[in-house]
């Protein structure tokens, strides 16, 4: 007589967690993106970095600091709140509207680099582009992300990518930063542990 299969223990049904980027990796990725921005923008002349809250804002500040360290160039940094431009406001709980803070001199006629932590469907970037149009008219817009996980729903791609992480839709990517979470790390969650 065959024995019935053993029931899975609760521990075996827990999602697996994999560290994709450590603290040192995050620093190297930020340095690499800063170098790429310097190269593609001829020394960051006429460039403004706008962070998309929450984690895009500290990433934009870090990129500006690294650019300043590498080339002694002060790149203006601002914050672009996209809350009221999101297309999922009806489906999610109300969120507090944050301040949009443009750097002195604004963004008109400048090259704006939007900075975010994870590029996924592209909807956050679409909302950022809509918000950007209401605060100024940049000469061009580029996108820098720490992680690109694929699965785009809109025709959007990043100009600067720290790490491409192929994922399934059942997986999720979680970025933590010292400024917001106390530690720099990127983790991949998903699938059942074996």
Describe this structure in words.
- The protein is of the alpha/beta class and 194 residues long.
- The protein has a single domain, classed as Rossmann fold (3-Layer(aba) Sandwich), CATH 3.40.50.
- Helix content is 26%, strand content 26%.
- The chain contains four helices and eight strands.
- It has helices at residues 23-40, 56-71, 123-135, 178-181; strands spanning 15-21, 47-51, 77-79, 111-119, 140-148, 160-164, 172-176, 185-192.
- The strands form two sheets. A five-stranded parallel beta sheet has the order 3-2-4-5-6, with helices on both faces. A three-stranded antiparallel beta sheet has the order 1-8-7.
- Helix 2 links the parallel strand 2 (47-51) and strand 3 (77-79).
- The two termini are 27 Å apart.
Task: Report the CATH C-level class.
Answer: Alpha Beta
> How are the strands of the biggest sheet laid out side by side?
3-2-4-5-6
SSE ordering: EHEHEEHEEEHE
Under CATH, the topology can be stated as Rossmann fold
Work out the number of β strands.
8
Rg, Cα atoms, Å: 19 Å
Quickly count the domains: 1
Number of helices: 4
Shape from CA axes?
globular
Measured distance between first and last alpha carbons? 27 Å
Low-confidence residue ranges: none
Q: Helix coverage percent of residues?
A: 25-40%
């Amino acid at each position: 007589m065959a024995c019935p299969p053993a029931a899975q223990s609760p521990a075996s049904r827990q999602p697996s967690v994999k560290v994709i980027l450590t603290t040192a990796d995050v620093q190297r990725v930020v340095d690499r993106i800063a170098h790429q921005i310097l190269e593609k923008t001829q020394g960051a002349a006429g460039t403004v970095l706008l962070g998309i809250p929450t984690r895009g804002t500290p990433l934009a500040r870090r990129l500006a600091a690294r650019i300043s360290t590498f080339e002694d160039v002060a790149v203006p940094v601002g914050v672009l709140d996209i809350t009221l431009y999101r297309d999922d406001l009806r489906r999610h709980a109300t969120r507090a509207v944050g301040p949009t803070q443009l750097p002195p001199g604004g963004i008109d006629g400048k090259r704006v680099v939007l900075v975010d932590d994870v590029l996924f469907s592209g909807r956050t970037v679409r909302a950022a582009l809509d918000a950007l149009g209401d605060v100024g008219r940049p000469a061009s817009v580029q996108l820098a992300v720490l992680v690109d996980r694929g699965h785009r729903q809109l025709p959007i791609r990043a100009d600067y990518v720290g790490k491409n992480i192929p994922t399934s839709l059942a997986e999720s990517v979680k970025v933590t930063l010292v400024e917001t979470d106390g530690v720099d790390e990127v983790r991949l969650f998903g699938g059942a542990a074996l």
